[in-house]
Here is the input.
Amino acid sequence: MNVYLDNAATTPLDNEVLQAMMPYFTEKFGNPSSIHAYGRETKAAIERSRKTIAGYLNASVGEIFFTSGGTETANLIIKCAVAQLGVKHIISSRIEHHCVLHPVEELAKAGNVTLHFVDLDEHGNVDLQHLETLLQRTHKDALVCLMHANNEIGNILPIEKVGELCESYGALFFSDTVQTIAHLPIDLQKIKVHFISGAAHKFHGPKGVGFVYIRNSHALCPLIHGGSQERNMRAGTENIYGIVGLAKAMELAYKNLEEHSAYIQGLKEYFYKKIQAAIPEVLVNGNYSGDSLYTVLNLAFPATEHADYLIYNLDINNIAASAGSACTSGSEQGSHVLKELKHANGKSSVRFSFSKFNTQEELDYVVEKLKDVFVPSKS
Here is the structure.
């Protein structure tokens, strides 16, 4: 049996998404910047896609710009906000995705901003009182960069409360929503956030395409120059089939959000109960309750002689999971997120992340293989 439980890293492409994309690989191939019929056809497809995405987020079509994904979007927002919007302080956390951490650390190293890290509790939740203290010190010169849901442990930020705090002190607010777009309802008329990011491959769309939301009153200049595409926000010929796939994946996700979220939450709860029964010493990294993303379960397993090789043991048994973010899989440093949790042991921790394509039968198989590692044989 082959079991894929690394959906926080990337998800399999939905066949309906592929079918929506296929015409733009073949007969609908015009450059959207061309004024002839071929170009007008693909330009219209881009604008339909933009309208679809804006509609699901309750945003204006003029606030959505297409990018290559979450990393480009984070760099665009952070670097351009510092360069153009008078940001002198950045408030973030030590468990952000590296697409946020690395740019803010580089800007601080270069002396362009002062970087402040908000305190976290033992489970990795943001200390809102400390955030307010930092906002009191920095006021209108601050950009707050806090992700909506952590990609490694699944903790969900109280994004509406953070937005209200930022507004009360005149700070800008960027939330990396890559793990929550198309997984949680997001109403940008209710959340006081200035910038968010999305990546299609996190919700059964294609890789290499995403978007940035920029609230109308806080326009940025482009990070990439060379053309007038995306209303002068991002130069370069548009990834037309990717954009169409992104919109289709988002449509499918939000159309079936209640059904799919309940199903995946059920899988997560089923799996955890089975693991607890088989290996009682297991601990949850981060939150497990309602303030945790239903697609992610990060578990710390008891130390054994085989624990250090747990990911490889799973892989040998055709089970795909991860020890942390896919962006750091080649690093020997270990998870920077788990290092911030007091009880977590990064070497024996595994992130299991679920999708609508997983089944209970698959999870039963994974539990049996984990028992082979952690439960001594009675023979």
Summary: The chain has a mean pLDDT of 93. The two ends are 26 Å apart (CA to CA).
